[in-house]
Structures are given as C-alpha cells and as structure tokens.
Amino acid sequence: MSAPGWRPAFRSALIRPEYRVVIEAFFDDSGKESQGDHRFVCIAGYLAHDQVWWGFQQRWRHLLMRHGIPAVHMKDWEGTRREKKWALNYGHRVLSEFIGAIKDSQLIGFGVAVDADVWRKLSSQRRKSFGDAQEFCFQRLLRRIIDRLDQAQERDAIELVFNRDYQFARPRLRLLEHINKRDPRMASRVAAISFGDARHYYLLQAADILAWQTRKHLVNQSGTQAETEGWRELFSALPDRDLDYEGELWDGEMVEAKFSELEADQKKMREMEKLRAS
C-alpha cells in the first residue's frame, strides 16, 4: 500500500505539458496579407522546458525592479527611455541586459516570415492549400518547433501561450483549427493554448524582443528603410547573432525553391489520412 500523500511521479506531466512555446504573433501589428501596404507577415516565439521558464522569469523580474520599469515593450521602448531620462547609450545597455537574460537562459527562438507581395502573386488554388499567409506562418513555426523536439526525441506535447489581445483571440484559435484540419498529426502535439497579459507574464516580453529581432532581419534583407530615427537607433541596440534562433523567410527565392516540396508533402499526408479513414 502506498504511503499517505503519495503521488505518482508522472502526475504533473498529465496535468500540463512540460514544454511551453511563448509566441508573439508579430503580424498583428505589421503584416496583414489583406492590406497591400504591409510587406511582411511574421510570427516568432520561444521554446523551453517549464523549469527553464521559471528561472528566466525570476531574472527578468529582478531586472524590471532594478531599472524601475513595469515591462519591456519594444514598440514603446523609446518612450520608456525618454520618460526615465536615460541617455541613448544607457538605454541600449539596459536593453542588452534583458537580451542577456534571454541568451543566458538558453531560450530557443523560432521565427517564420512571408513576403506578402510574393504570397499574393501565388495562384488562389496554391494559397488555398495552406490557408492565408498568417496560417502558413503559424503552420511552419509549429513544424520547426516539433522538428526540434523530434530531433531530441522529446515526445511530450507543448503548450502555446499568446499575448492577451481580445481583438486577435479568435483568429489565433482559428490558426489551431487550421492546423488541425491540415495536419492532425502535428496538431496532436499541441496539448493546450492560453493567453497572457505581457505586463505580468514576462515570457511574452521576451517574445516581443524576438519579434523585433525578426523584423530587423526582414528590414535588412529587403532593403526597406526603417520608419524613424528612433527605430534605427533601437535596431542598433539589438544583437544580430547573439540569440539562439532559427527562422525561415519565404521570399520569392524560397517559394520558388521549396514551395513545391511542401505541396507534395501535404498531398501525401492527405492521401494517408484518407487511407486511415477508409
């Protein structure tokens, strides 16, 4: 007979997954396929074990307390710097401390972006197979994350955490619905989805930095000019290669080289699903 209060060691794994993916859906702010003036659709996030996230949050919280700020939000960072009356170099140094917390915690970053101009030029039939550009980005992001887990022979499911934004809550749920229809095998690896307030959920602040880092790469690769001097100054504070990051940019060259392979894989997967159903 088991001792009073005994609990099986695997009980916590049954309650919640051990791996968490914190996502900043950057297309919310700067890339909507339906709007011709938005060049990129982009989504970025971090993968880490739950214990790693816990340690990271303690350090992030300490840095916020140390510098007397409530949150790190890249869109408002220049305003924060001015409000605190920090010199430009000092503001960069503070930002580097937060980036250092991400790097030292060994968070694994992922990002996927689509050039919306290239996507709109694909035939409607080819686009229909993958949904819109946002759905395609989300599907590719999950694919990269699950591939990384498979490489490490980690079979645990993951939890997805999005920034709490009521305007986009339903579209994000639809992204999962899209994945479930297009790739049930991949969808089975998603155990839970939740929404957090970035002011209190520090992991989302880290994802916000990654989204900006991804944006930086897109701006540099496309030759697009940054919008303001403050934007350019902020980019100069972000490191190019210091973060553990892997990503995809689906521009014209990438679509021409790889899109047909994805279509063939998707066709094969649909055929396999039909066989299982019959």
List keywords for this structure.
6 strands, six-stranded mixed sheet, single chain, globular, Nucleotidyltransferase, domain 5, 57% helix, alpha/beta, 15% strand, 278 residues, disordered N terminus
Distance between the termini: 47 Å
Number of domains: 1
**H/E element sequence:** HEHEHHHEHHHEHHEHHEH
CATH class designation: Alpha Beta
Number of strands: 6
Q: What structural class do you assign from the helix and strand content?
A: alpha/beta
Number of helices: 13
- How would you sum up the global shape? globular
Provide the helix percentage: 55-70%
Multimeric state: single chain
The CATH topology comes to Nucleotidyltransferase, domain 5
Radius of gyration: 20 Å
